[in-house]
Amino acid sequence: MKALVTNHSIATRLLNLGLGRSIGRGVGLSEIAVPTISDDEILVKVRAVALNPTDYKHIDVISPPGSIVGCDYAGEVVNIGKNARGDWKVGDRVAGAVHGGLYPDRGAFAEYLKVPGDLAWKPPVNMSDAEAATYGVSAVTGMLALNARLGIPWADEGKGAQGVSGNGAAVLIYAGSTSAGLFSIQLAKAAGYTVVTTASPHSFDLVKKYGADKVFDYHSSAAADDVVKEFPNITCAVDCFSEGNSTEFCANVLKNKGGKVVTLLDQGKSKTPGVQYELIMAYTVFGHAFQWLPPIGPKFEAKTSDRKALARFYESLPRLTEMVKPPPVSTINGGFDGILAGVDKLRKGQVSGSKLVVHL
Ligand SMILES: NC(=O)c1ccc[n+]([C@@H]2O[C@H](COP(=O)([O-])OP(=O)(O)OC[C@H]3O[C@@H](n4cnc5c(N)ncnc54)[C@H](OP(=O)(O)O)[C@@H]3O)[C@@H](O)[C@H]2O)c1
């Protein structure tokens, strides 16, 4: 099959890490074997893929040479392991995310991919492949942050926050117009929370359309104080940007009562008394341990509870898509070349308020 496979040496990747930019392309179209499935996996013919910043971060720095890139996909089931969970039939539509960028036989930017049967979901008939492909890393990240780490009730459990506080507790979603932010807003809303978010003014209508109750411009130096004036009791936040002073902004909002900020990139330890930072890494939902840039890079332990959370989320998702909608989709033509062009747009920070999707 055809697949986008990485080729940067460790020396180039360390140089890219040091420079904070990418030298060379680091990825090319290769002809490789169709993955062999285990008894609990299904084989998927990939029809559409969605792109994430993590794709270029893997190509430029993390991926060992020979790894298939890409996480988010939608497609069709073409083979089923004899113990695969999920009640799959050949020909079923399927979507989800895989741990792309680290293995020679697992990744979404390929004609075929393999995935455990219980870690994929069945898109409804009225949803396009392009939309279905968007419920990968970004949606999973929102779920992991809110439901698994902050203990916010699951979207299929109803209006939990209303029950607890009587009038809806508030949560801060920093950078609500990111793909992770748009899913987080919707998952918090589904749980009955009042959603306070930040975005650029050009994204205000977008985040409100996805359910944000109040949006603040993160460019304003008074924004954190403005949030506190209006919402003095917030105790939990998801920082969907996690760069520059974004996490400190969240800590300032929480400092009255204390609480937890979930971050998507490493922001070190909180310096704000009573406020804790917790880094999440969406790949822990796949249930296996992994390491980046071994032997010196960070190690991530296998987390059975995160794997269970993903299986639970994807099992419930077909019933939730009216409430948890896909982000706006921007389709890029050109198949595998289109993927490379789209990943480069992400690398250059040229994507705002939409999810890039490519049909294969
Ligand atoms: N740890 C994990 O498991 C995990 C999972 C998913 C993502 N991530 C990381 O989280 C980040 C977001 O990913 P994504 O796919 O959701 O992003 P995305 O959709 O590509 O983000 C684009 C958005 O970033 C916002 N933005 C740009 N500069 C900003 C700034 N200075 N402050 C606040 N917002 C800014 C823009 O909002 P405006 O146009 O409104 O300004 C734009 O809409 C990436 O770094 C990604 O690698 C980590």
Walk me through the structure.
InterPro entries: ADH-like_C, ADH-like_N, ER, GroES-like_sf, NAD(P)-bd_dom_sf, Trans-enoyl_RdTase-like. The chain is of the alpha/beta class and 360 residues long. Helices cover 29% and strands 23% of the residues. The strands form 4 sheets. Strands 3, 4, 5, 6, 7, 16 and 17 form a 7-stranded mixed sheet that branches. Strands 10-9-8-11-12-13 form a 6-stranded parallel sheet, sandwiched between helices. It has a two-stranded antiparallel ribbon with strand order 1-2. Helix 2 packs across helix 11, helix 4 (137-149) packs across helix 6 and helix 4 crosses helix 10 (304-316). Residues 163-167 have low confidence and may be disordered. The structure holds NADP nicotinamide-adenine-dinucleotide phosphate. The site of NADP nicotinamide-adenine-dinucleotide phosphate has 28 residues, from helix 2, helix 4 and helix 6.
